Amino acid sequence: MAIKSNKAEINDAYPSIQLRRLEREQEKLKKDNDANDSDDPHKITNPLILAKLEKLQVETEKLKLDIAITHKQYIHISELSQAVEKEYTRIRQKLLGIGPKVSHIVAPITNPIEIKQILDEEVNEILEELSYDKTLKE
Length: 138
Hints:
Elements: H1 2-36, H2 47-70, H3 77-96, H4 98-106, H5 112-131, H6 134-137
Helix pairs in contact: 1-2, 4-5
């Protein structure tokens, strides 16, 4: 078990190591530019250094995004869409179930205030049930 645990730790650390390497390479390129350009040390004039730096910056941002996704800081849009669609379906089913559930209760009632009260109670019960549901909190 210790070997598997160490492998997992190494795999988890690898993106962070790559990220530090990319950041060091960017700093080195900036220092190389500073040594070549005495007018403005922050302005990159060498097109080769500029291209390399831009490439490293893109790689760095991609790696940061990959790390964030790995650590569940971001979720893929398709996963989010599926979860939202599932919840909409559940809500729709609950709301469509109000009619059959309360129709026999409100049928003999002629007072609109009583009917509204029964419907309000049912809607509130459904909303409460949905708000306490574990799947909504995940």
